[in-house]
Amino acid sequence: MKKYNVAVVGVGAVGIEMLRVLKQRNFPVGQLRVLARSAREIEVDDSKYAVETVSPDSFNNINIALFAGTEGEKGAAATYASEAVKRGAVVIDNGADFRMDPKVPLVVPEVNAKDVLKHKGIIANPNCSTIQMVVALGPIHKKAGIKRIIVTTLQASSGAGRGAVEQLKVENAMIAANGFDSVHVCVKDRAMPQQLAYNVFPHIGGFVEDDYTSEEWKMVRETHKIMHDDLIKISATTVRVPVRTGHSESVYIETKTPIEVDKLKSVLSKAAGIVVMDDPATGLYPMPKDVEGKDEVFVGRIRKDPFVKNGLWLWVVADNLRKGAATNAVQIAECVISNCK
Asked: Known catalytic residue: 247?
């Protein structure tokens, strides 16, 4: 099998997961370079990796460069992607810097794998909450057409990085030791704008047009681009919840043509990357605690709206660090080396 020289840029939560996924999926890695702002050694699942300081020359002889990305700020790809492409690498960027660039494909392989073939050196990985939603909705759109989506996300702390996970841990410990009032004391270097422990708040990203957050607009614009349909009416509310890993979404759709619930379950069950868990009478439905470490998108609570023709509800859960970031990026890389066969 042909081997490919791979660079992973960033060793935060997503970068670590990229290293793990490359190994677990047996990606044909020749030389592996792990790059970050500073050199050090890290350990992932008993494997040691020498981290090198990133520079333009780090991408010499690299075939595929996976940028772990940073939501909400300029990622390393903004500085180094063009240098990597210049040296012959295909860049797959998990950050937001290139997602809406019309020259850059935005790819979820289960939905629009062929868009990979249009790349000019850079391919963007969508936002985590967008990825799991379009995996679930792609087969429905193909079968019955979707004209409207209303989604509320319940997003885990790990979606905001290690700092938010640490904040949740510290706040939980403070409450356990000293009671609920103790957490109102300012936590040093708080990563989130509000208390995470025992709390939810509808604020992910900054507030922008029409008082929607940037995260909510990402779900609108990225879904339009991935599904090649700007006519779908999409409205989103994104909520941070006190969960470590695993995003959940309550998704309401209206289809263009009728589709019965049993048929919908069948369509989803046969679709790539989806696991249907839907027997609510026995307590069977997806939960973030059960999907952590898994690559599929899990769908349950599939039901009709009794008052709106062609209205349907779905409950969609996925590991935001895996399918929502690292796994999707590695799947794109797999698509690149196979020409999406």
From this structure: yes
